[in-house]
Amino acid sequence: MMAAITAKQNGHQVILLEKMKSLGKKLLITGKGRCNITSSLDMGEFIKNTPGNGRFLYSCYQNYTNHDIIQFLEEQGLEVKEERGNRIFPVTNQSQDVLKCFTKRLKELGVEIRYDTQVTNILVEQKDNVSKVMEIETNQGKIKAEKIILATGGKSYPLTGSTGDGYRLAKQLGHTITDIKPSLVPLESYDKDTCQQLQGLSLKNVEIKLKDKETEKDIYKDFGEMLFTHFGVSGPTILSSSAHLVRYKQIEEKLKCQDILLVIDLKPALSEDKLDERILRDFQEIKNKQFKNSLDQLLPKKMIPVVIEKSGIDAYKPIHEITKEERKAIVKLLKNFVVTIKGFRPIEEAIVTSGGVCIKEINPKTMQSKKVNGLYFAGEIIDVDSYTGGFNLQIAYSTGYTAGLLQT
Ligand SMILES: Cc1cc2nc3c(=O)[nH]c(=O)nc-3n(C[C@H](O)[C@H](O)[C@H](O)COP(=O)(O)OP(=O)(O)OC[C@H]3O[C@@H](n4cnc5c(N)ncnc54)[C@H](O)[C@@H]3O)c2cc1C
Fold first, then answer.
1. What is 2-181+355-404's CATH number, 3.40.50.300, 3.50.50.60, 3.20.20.30, 2.60.120.230?
2. Of 341, 383, 37, 387, the residue nearest 240 (C-alpha)
3. 0.85 exceeded by the pTM?
4. Contact 357/195 with Cβ under 8 angstroms?
5. Residue nearest to atom 31 of ligand 1 (CA)
6. Ligand 1 atom with least separation from CA of 31
7. Residue ranges, the chain, pLDDT below 70
8. What's the 20 CA to ligand 1 centre distance in angstroms?
9. Tell me: the pLDDT tens digits for 111-162?
10. I need a surface site. Which of 47, 209, 328, 387 has the fewest CB within 10 A?
């Protein structure tokens, strides 16, 4: 949409081909329906937040910044607000209002939009040993085109239309497609029983760590919210951690060997000593209760039977019989609740696709293919991906704008 708007604004005749019945289906589900539009950080920070080839985006980020998208939306009548973590949202908290800005501008400019039109093939001609785009084949017939911007998205959430068509089209034209993997995706666990027992429990204000058991190295550390699911773990901190994990060396091997541990600190605000003092205080007040009835003040209800089981202490033991060593073991468990990670959920459930059209084959200043003249790329189809925080949509706007300039 951004590419079509930019191309039309620059005087080109534009046809926007969309295989779905409406535009922006993925945009509608962003930010849990609220759309985290972009980030308020400096554009330099966007590169740091883009572990998947961030530096390739330098020119695009300069061409079209977070301020530019905010100004664009404001010009269409949508105000934005900033929330925790530099995240920008529409004041209305509705992603459909962001989509409306795009569709309104497309209409104003008179961009022709063809729905239910799936691009199935791109034909090129050879002139003086150079390939040049010529024609597009769709399920609705052929269209002649001097320039084509391929912005078919990635491979995640296929019901929104992004089924990976663009990878096949680009490959047919001689482009390399790097490994397609899920990123910002929930994680599966070997400890299925534990996770199922805790299913639906959302932990706020916990510290999570991904650890390599073999090297004892911390792979990722974060603070915030996580969620237990029937297959493992999810939630904001877990999704962010997956973007690091997907890039960790020999990850497949490590996962197979059960070497990747998620270590959850359930009480990050308290040191081990302070937590021990706190438990001791609680225990003194309820000396004659059984262990199983002693953790209500400390833990969410669902967590208590799991912690009791993991502690190895008899659930019916009277509190006054709990030894100092046993108490220390409880402290250790609350500061280091371990879930063994088995792998990533399928790409269909990922927020973003890692991998795509190889960046070495795209001119970073214009987004034009280095293999086929007149072919441009924009958005998630390119081998670039960011962390959460509005960065992935900014990639789409910035590369879409740059491609839409149709520079040679
Ligand atoms: C659940 C979820 C939440 C997210 N939340 C955020 C967020 O809050 N902030 C953020 O920055 N990012 C978020 N993202 C990521 C962001 O939505 C994507 O990175 C972004 O939409 C990519 O834009 P795109 O234009 O490249 O691809 P898409 O938005 O996927 O658009 C591609 C379009 O191409 C069409 N298409 C595909 N193949 C063909 C074909 N052969 N012919 C014709 N049309 C075709 C599709 O139907 C689709 O309309 C989220 C993603 C998901 C899944």
1. 3.50.50.60
2. 387
3. yes
4. no
5. 153
6. 8
7. none
8. 12
9. 999 999 999 999 999 988 899 999 999 999 999 999 999 999 999 999 999 9
10. 328
